[in-house]
Amino acid sequence: MLGAVLIVAIGAALGACGNGTDEATSGSILVSASSSLGTAMVEIAEAFEAEHEGASVSVNIANSAALASQIDAGAPVDVFASADEWNMQSVVDGQGTVAPPVVFATNEPRILVGPGNPFGITGLDDLAALTAADPGFVYVAVAPESAIGRYVTEILERAGVELSPRSLEESVTAAANKVRLGEADATIVFTTDVLASGDRGVGVPIPSEVNVIATALVAVPEGAPNPDGAAAFVDFVLGDTGRAILDSYGFGLP
Amino acid sequence: MNRRRPDPSAERLPVVAVVLAGTAIAFFAAPFVGLLWRAPWGDVWRVVSDDTVRRALVLSLQTSIATMVVSAIFGIPLAWLLARVGFPGRSLVRALAMLSMVLPPVVGGVALFFSFGRRGLFGQYLDAWFGIQLPFSTPAVVMAQTFVAMPFLVLTVEAALRQVDRRYEDAARTLGASRWYVFRRVTLPSIRPALVAGLVLAWARALGEFGATITFAGNLPGTTQTMPLATFLALDRRPEEAIGLSMLLIAISFTVLLTLRDRWLGGSPNTTAAGAA
Predict the structure, then answer these.
(1) Res A167: pLDDT
(2) Residues of chain B where predicted confidence (pLDDT) is lower than 50
(3) A153, A212 in Cβ contact below 8 A?
(4) Is the Cβ of B119 closer than 8 Å to some Cβ of chain A?
(5) Does any CB of chain A come closer than 8 Å to the CB of residue B111?
(6) 8 A C-beta contact, residue B191 and residue B160
(7) Contact at 8 Å (CB) between B213 and B226?
(8) Nearest-5° Cα angle at B195, B253 to B183
(9) Which of A164, A180, A183 to mutate to test the interface with B (most CBs of B within 10 A)?
(10) Which of A19, A31, A201, B114 is 20 to 30 Å from the Cα of A178, by its Cα?
């Protein structure tokens, strides 16, 4: 919802600018990035602006599905960075992209628990046992429609485990915050969210046989107002600076 | 005696005012027209009788009505206190009671979260002493809704209580009525239009509450997923469901507002206490 408002405001501002781009990397670039990519993408945007005089990058952060809907509804997005392949695919099928999407990072789902891991959780089976047996144990999930939600559904299927969440949070950040603040005891989010918790959370890995590695893709949607700037930004993300920033947040690199 | 009084409905507004008012009407109507245009009319029954939609509807109605009742039980005495009793710090108390009405609801949710959550200032004792965990439960939904909705009732009732003609109450007291009797049979009826308006406002505000609910109570179908939450989450993958939920909410609210129209207006302008008869 906030993303939609942001789109309209930025769209109005972009419409009012209408500057010709003789210098490809000047002008405004609007990047739509999924929640789990958000903070890293903002840092990449700032690095891009530092290296390219006159460029102004705005990062619109929301969950992947909302971003894909916005693009399909005609939002003036220059770059779409999606935390999952399904929503990127729906943009490819819908609005279309200038070039095929490129995998620029990977992110591994991981269990997030409170500091010190008070329940001594070692894996999915422990989680299942606790949610079933202990009514005081609070497991929250992210809404199944989200990127992480779909990955978790697949992981649980592979592991043959059932978890009943107390709440379906609207984003990875919301779910992670509940655990970090002590409101919930466990959730499954991305490794990057676990790292972002600092000392307010501890990660428990999920065995690689059942885990699903999330691939983050980047593409320029058809109809992007600033395709040259967008292409320059995508190159920057795939280049050394971009990769170094992504690595510092805990993303895997292809 | 038949005095010719100007009929209010025959008054002519300046053209400018009419145009502005017309724009306002268009502004209010346009979003609904847009929604109706996109509504899946062929599928309406299937969408509306979907399990998630039904559970959200039932939960919304239950919690909003509970909120209305709780707001009345605690709000009417508060309104009376603010209207009739002068005590030091009254303006402060009034500002406090109205604060959540002015704040963005999500702020209210965050505040509730940090005070009544499991690790909250008060919540931690609730958990340690009584084993009560409020978040992710239906009572938490009512709490979140009451926090944002009760000020509407307090505001409306306080304003009405200030305007009540106290002579009727005093007359009743001198005739030997108890204070409870006076409240029940004289005061409340004389503020009935405002009281009903306040109840409806509180109920409607509770029905539409989103930010505080999702932050404090969480979101789980059947327990805490009210219609606004369900609508928001359905918007991404299942827009027809979101539209169906939206239309349900609109239909319910519109019906309630229409049937209470006469109560709102409370009869012609020159009836006050007489209007209660």
Answers:
(1) 93
(2) 267-277
(3) no
(4) yes
(5) no
(6) yes
(7) yes
(8) 155
(9) A183
(10) A31
Determine contact: B115 vs chain A, CB below 8 A: no
Give the gyration radius of chain B's Cα atoms.
22
Which pLDDT score, from 0 to 100, does residue A4 have?
Answer: 60
- The residue whose two tokens read 């989200």 is A146
Please, are residues B151 and B108 in contact by the beta-carbon 8 Å criterion?
A: no
Q: Determine the pLDDT at residue A112.
A: 95
Optimal mutation site among B114, B219, B235, interface A, most CBs of chain A within 10 A: B219
Nearest CA distance, B55 vs chain A (angstrom): 15
Q: Output the pLDDT for position A22.
A: 38
What DSSP letter does each residue of B199-258 carry, written as one string? HHHHHHHHHT--HHIIIII---TTTT--HHHHHHHHHHH-HHHHHHHHHHHHHHHHHHHH
**Residue A121, SS3 per DSSP:** coil
User: According to the model, what pLDDT value does residue A42 have?
Assistant: 95
Residue A145 contacts B where some CB pair is shorter than 8 Å:
yes
* List of chain A residues with pLDDT < 50: 15-23
Q: Please give the structure tokens belonging to residue B96.
A: 């406090």
Question: pLDDT value at position B4?
Answer: 62
> What's the pLDDT score for residue B266?
53
The whole-angstrom separation of Cα A157 and Cα B11 is 70
**Pairing state between β A214-219 and A79-82:** antiparallel
Q: What local confidence, expressed as pLDDT, does residue B273 receive?
A: 42
* A32 φ/ψ angles, rounded to the nearest 5 degrees: -100, 120
ipTM reported for the complex surpasses 0.95: no
Cβ–Cβ contact B130 with A under 8 A:
no
In b/e form, how buried is each residue of B249-270, taking b as 16+ CB within 10 angstroms? beebeeeeeeeeeeeeebeeee
3-state SS assignment for residue A57 = strand
Sheet strand arrangement including A109-113: A186-190, A109-113, A202-204
Best CA proximity match to A124, nearest among A211, A190, A4: A211
* B170 close to B92: Cβ distance less than 8 angstroms: no
One-letter amino acid identity for A4? A
